[in-house]
Amino acid sequence: MEIDTALAQGDGDLSGPELRKLLAMVREHTGIAMSERKRSLLQGRLRRRMRALSLTSYADYLCRVESQPAEVTHFIDLVTTNETSFFRTPRVWAYFAEHFLPEWQRAHPRETLEVWSAASSSGEEAYSIAMLADAMRLSQPPFDYRVFGTDICSSVVETARMGRYEGRSMDSLRTSRPDVAARYFSAEGEAWRAAPELRARVQFERHNLMRPLSSLRLASRARRFDIVFLRNVLIYFDGPSQQQIVSNICAAMKPGALLVLGESESLQRFDTGLRFEQPLFYRKVTGDAHV
Ligand SMILES: C[S@@+](CC[C@H](N)C(=O)[O-])C[C@H]1O[C@@H](n2cnc3c(N)ncnc32)[C@H](O)[C@@H]1O
């Protein structure tokens, strides 16, 4: 029987104990505090997956997630919201290019800038960082940089690793910054691929921000960063989880490093050792003992 027919014949709506159990599983695997108001969103996403697995009830799907670790990865991909774009929130990028990069280079003339795009989704944020830093590398030698992108959702990490974009994401980059798009992307069939010099400096890994970055086995990457982009992700968590994430991030920031948040996010309620620098930017002012 088709899943939609089966669900229509029984109780097709996700509700009651099954809904509560699913929300608890979302929290267990991602830390995300999803409310019952997200029921229809969750239901639509689960049905697609259940159809692919030929499962006809939410209870069967819950069992599948509980009994098969591989399904947990799919489940996490289903419940995360990965909306992103190149150069999202223009004022962030103006400050990064015009103030942060030149000031950092003056203060660290021979070092490699280490950047972390935490919750990088499909990589547009990390490549935006790389395009601006690369312009600096070409114009101000010996400046160099590396960008580390992480996300809990495995499918977006794969896209980011490929550095291959099409559709709305690429259209908006080509419209808003045509010179930059032409310099750093080349056509590959219907899509556009990031230039090799960017891809060589950008690395992506799957990582859950609820855990310390030190729990991730990194062969050759920095564990401490000069600037961390943590944008448009804290909004999905409750207060205690936000505090946990910010503490984990702080532990991976060098003294004096900057943290960049999304427009609807703030650190006001937290004990962090970070000082407001200017809207959306916070500076780590304490030593590591305090974070
Ligand atoms: C709305 S996107 C933001 C992407 C990008 N930072 C931006 O501002 O455009 C939020 C991302 O956070 C990721 N995410 C959610 N929970 C996470 C967790 N516990 N650990 C790591 N990433 C998480 C999601 O998979 C998603 O890709």
Structure description:
- It comes from Pararobbsia alpina.
- This protein is α/β, with parallel strands linked by helices and 291 residues long.
- The chain folds into two domains: 3-79, Chemotaxis Receptor Methyltransferase Cher, domain 1 (Orthogonal Bundle), CATH 1.10.155.10; 90-290, Rossmann fold (3-Layer(aba) Sandwich).
- The protein contains twelve helices and ten strands.
- The protein has helices at 3-9, 16-30, 39-53, 58-67, 69-79, 90-107, 124-139, 154-162, 167-176, 178-184, 196-199, 239-251; strands at residues 112-118, 144-151, 164-165, 185-188, 191-194, 202-206, 225-230, 253-261, 274-278, 281-284.
- The strands form two sheets. Strands 6-2-1-7-8-10-9 form a seven-stranded mixed β-sheet.
- Strand 9 (274-278) and strand 10 form a beta hairpin.
Can you describe this structure in just a few lines?
The chain is built from 12 helices and 10 strands. It has helices spanning 3-9, 16-30, 39-53, 58-67, 69-79, 90-107, 124-139, 154-162, 167-176, 178-184, 196-199, 239-251, and strands at residues 112-118, 144-151, 164-165, 185-188, 191-194, 202-206, 225-230, 253-261, 274-278, 281-284.
